[in-house]
């Protein structure tokens, strides 16, 4: 455990006779290795108890530089590592956090952990100050070197239990006689658990990590919708210059830093959904929109659409704010607090926005109810400053079992998959627009089982064709798909991308296959080019690529409107049946074929 000793002064020791170490992790923040997490096992009377111990040395203030963000960032990394170990490998382990916090404030949500010093001395008033310039000459010297004249004692070294199961019996300061350090040490004697099995989950029911995570304006959490509300299909939103041209309601803007902790964010958001009672098999939630309004800015205006007040939406927001207490930017930027809305367009003036509203010819009482697709985590791109989807948390269950599938013919699982698929489709369309250039018209079409309402999580992909209408008389599909892949990979560096060729008779088709993040739906993308002057396919490859869309439309039209839900449900059951027997795909019939 010596990797963090130089230059950070952090060493984790244990008695080898009675304790074994299963694993050690150093938590890195940039070039710093100031924290260490160890998995230690103690055996007593035939019963082994596992402790996940995080030992920290958080940055100290330097003059006017208070270093609060640096402390919170490092603490978040340590708690994240502890959470991963507890939730994945050591569910009955006892997590402990200790060390030099260099701050006497509560960096962790005080409802969750147990400060062991306070647990012992909560009645006798002993504040346990570990940094005391009044009694420790070394602490006084440190203060003077830092240019501070304050001699206020502080308790900045702590031992914290992150889960019930430990009982502190004594707690005392050590090193007070002839102090070797400017900090006194803290020693706590504990009674361990007596064989009982813990059923609590750290940072899901308790969300330690999310309560301490550093926020950033470059990340936001939003509800994605199937379309822009109250806009006719032939009227595009006026937001092509927006940093996030996707229909959404922002939940938390100024969300948590997620570069290395996407799984923790998704777990915490999913727990908020469960706490709000929003994960079930009753289908996706809906919102009704009936009110257009204008946000006035100093030199521009934004056209917005507000939903009717919704109990589930308010409950979700309150639960998320409790889970992520630092993410208050969305509330503080508006005088009336959080105001749920969908942005429909940006205008130079307020009057221009209101003029646009008048062109919509909306009658009094016009309303539109839309399905909420998913909760999506967005992040700002370092390439162009625009915001892209980095992960999705579905509302509906993703678990595929016969009991779940037969409960509603797989509708819940399909809707959960569709929520993530629609977000990926938006990302795909943006990449295709960038690859085609501003002069071309681009539309992404979905065909096959997903378009037929039969896609299921775990083994379904999204079959897509991008229709590009341009003046280019000799476009190259391979070059176009390479540009799409480059655009997506720059924003999703952990994604998987592959271009392959398929042959139909004598015609070669290029297909881009990709998955934007772990767990995201896989996409097969082909390109179909049309001549801008007459709308005709420019070659046989374009006509064949678009053939899947034509076949899907013909199949849908062959089924009576009132029978389509039944057809999709039967198709999902057949598809799951085939997958369970390993006869789905791999040269056999696909979803539409079944």
UniProtKB/TrEMBL annotation:
InterPro entries noted in UniProt: Cyclic_Pdiesterase, Endo/exonu/phosph_ase_sf, NT_sf
Any Pfam family the entry gives: 2_5_RNA_ligase2
UniProt superkingdom: Eukaryota
Gene3D superfamilies listed in its UniProt record: Beta Polymerase, domain 2 (3.30.460.10), Cyclic phosphodiesterase (3.90.1140.10), Endonuclease/exonuclease/phosphatase (3.60.10.10)
Protein name: Polynucleotide adenylyltransferase
Organism: Grammatophora oceanica
Species lineage: Eukaryota, Sar, Stramenopiles, Ochrophyta, Bacillariophyta
């Amino acid at each position: 455990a010596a990797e963090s000793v130089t230059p950070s002064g952090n060493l984790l020791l244990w008695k080898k006779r009675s304790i074994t170490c299963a694993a050690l992790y150093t938590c890195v923040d940039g070039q710093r290795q100031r924290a260490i997490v160890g998995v230690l096992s103690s055996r007593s009377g035939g019963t082994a108890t596992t402790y996940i111990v995080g030992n920290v040395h958080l940055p100290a203030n330097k003059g006017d530089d208070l270093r609060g963000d640096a402390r919170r960032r490092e603490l978040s990394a340590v708690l994240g590592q502890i959470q991963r170990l507890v939730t994945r490998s050591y569910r009955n382990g006892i997590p402990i956090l200790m060390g030099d916090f260099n701050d006497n404030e509560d960096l962790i949500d005080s409802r969750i952990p147990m400060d062991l010093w306070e647990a012992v001395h909560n009645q006798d008033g002993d504040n346990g100050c570990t940094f005391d310039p009044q009694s420790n000459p070394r602490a006084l010297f440190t203060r003077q070197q830092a240019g501070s004249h304050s001699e206020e004692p502080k308790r900045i070294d702590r031992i914290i239990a992150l889960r019930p199961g430990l009982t502190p019996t004594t707690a005392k300061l050590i090193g007070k006689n002839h102090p070797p350090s400017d900090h006194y040490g803290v020693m706590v004697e504990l009674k361990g658990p007596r064989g009982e099995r813990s059923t609590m989950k750290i940072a899901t029911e308790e969300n330690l990590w999310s309560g301490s995570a550093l926020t950033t304006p470059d990340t936001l959490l939003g509800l994605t919708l199937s379309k822009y509300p109250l806009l006719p299909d032939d009227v595009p939103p006026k937001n092509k210059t927006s940093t996030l041209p996707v229909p959404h309601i922002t939940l938390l803007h100024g969300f948590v830093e997620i570069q290395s902790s996407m799984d923790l964010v998704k777990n915490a958001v999913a727990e908020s959904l469960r706490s709000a009672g929003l994960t079930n098999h009753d289908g996706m939630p809906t919102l009704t929109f009936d009110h257009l309004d204008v946000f006035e800015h100093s030199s521009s205006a934004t056209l917005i659409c507000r939903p009717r007040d919704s109990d589930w939406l308010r409950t979700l927001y309150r639960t998320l704010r409790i889970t992520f207490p630092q993410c208050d930017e969305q509330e503080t930027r508006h005088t009336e607090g959080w105001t749920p809305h969908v942005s429909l367009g940006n205008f130079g003036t307020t009057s221009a926005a209101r003029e646009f509203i008048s062109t919509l010819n909306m009658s009094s009482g016009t309303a539109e109810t839309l399905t909420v697709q998913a909760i999506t985590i967005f992040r700002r791109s370092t390439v162009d400053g625009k915001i892209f989807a980095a992960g999705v948390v579905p509302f509906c269950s993703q678990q595929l079992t016969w009991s779940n599938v037969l409960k509603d013919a797989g509708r819940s699982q399909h809707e959960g998959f569709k929520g993530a698929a629609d977000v990926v489709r938006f990302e795909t369309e943006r990449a295709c627009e960038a690859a085609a250039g501003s002069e071309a018209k681009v539309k992404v079409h979905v065909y096959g089982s997903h378009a037929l309402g039969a896609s299921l999580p775990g083994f379904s992909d999204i079959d897509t064709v991008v229709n590009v209408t341009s003046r280019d008389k000799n476009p190259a599909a391979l070059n176009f798909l390479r540009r799409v892949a480059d655009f997506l990979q720059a924003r999703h560096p952990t994604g998987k991308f592959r271009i392959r060729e398929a042959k139909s008779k004598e015609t070669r088709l290029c297909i881009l296959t990709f998955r934007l993040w772990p767990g995201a739906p896989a996409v097969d993308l082909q390109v179909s080019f049309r001549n801008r002057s007459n709308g005709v396919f420019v070659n046989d490859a374009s006509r064949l690529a678009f053939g899947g869309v034509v076949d899907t439309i013909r199949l849908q039209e062959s089924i009576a409107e009132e029978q389509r839900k039944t057809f999709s449900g039967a198709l999902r059951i057949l598809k799951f049946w085939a997958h369970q027997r390993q006869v789905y795909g791999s040269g056999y019939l696909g979803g539409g074929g079944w």
